[in-house]
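Title: Comparing notes on inverse folding

I've been comparing how different people in this forum approach sequence design from structure. To keep things fair, I'm posting one structure and asking everyone to reply with a full sequence. Here's the target:
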């Protein structure tokens, strides 16, 4: 997962890209004839210095290699702190990435 985070005037702007094929149930059925071959990200978490700052559930309706953008208040964080992002897909596979606040 690629992660970029910028802290400016107490606001952290985050842009993260998860490398994942994101195969929906319909795509799996068309390709293999079996809906069980679907595989997509179902959960994403972000932490700064061990504190959870974002925790979201997702569905099959995201594009391949989805990009997530969000903002959060960053008053308690400083430049150089590490943002850890991770995801879990429907098959239990995980991915993660990190970036420092700039």
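Reply #1:
Here's my take.
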């Amino acid at each position: 997962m690629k992660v970029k985070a910028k802290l400016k005037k107490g606001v952290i702007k985050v842009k993260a890209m998860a490398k994942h094929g994101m195969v929906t149930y319909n795509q799996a059925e068309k390709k293999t004839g079996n809906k069980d071959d679907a595989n997509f990200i179902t959960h994403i978490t972000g932490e700064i210095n061990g504190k959870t700052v974002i925790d979201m559930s997702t569905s099959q309706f995201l594009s391949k290699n989805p990009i997530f953008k969000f903002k959060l208040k960053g008053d308690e964080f400083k430049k150089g702190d590490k943002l850890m992002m991770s995801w879990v897909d429907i098959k239990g596979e995980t991915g993660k990435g990190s970036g420092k606040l700039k």
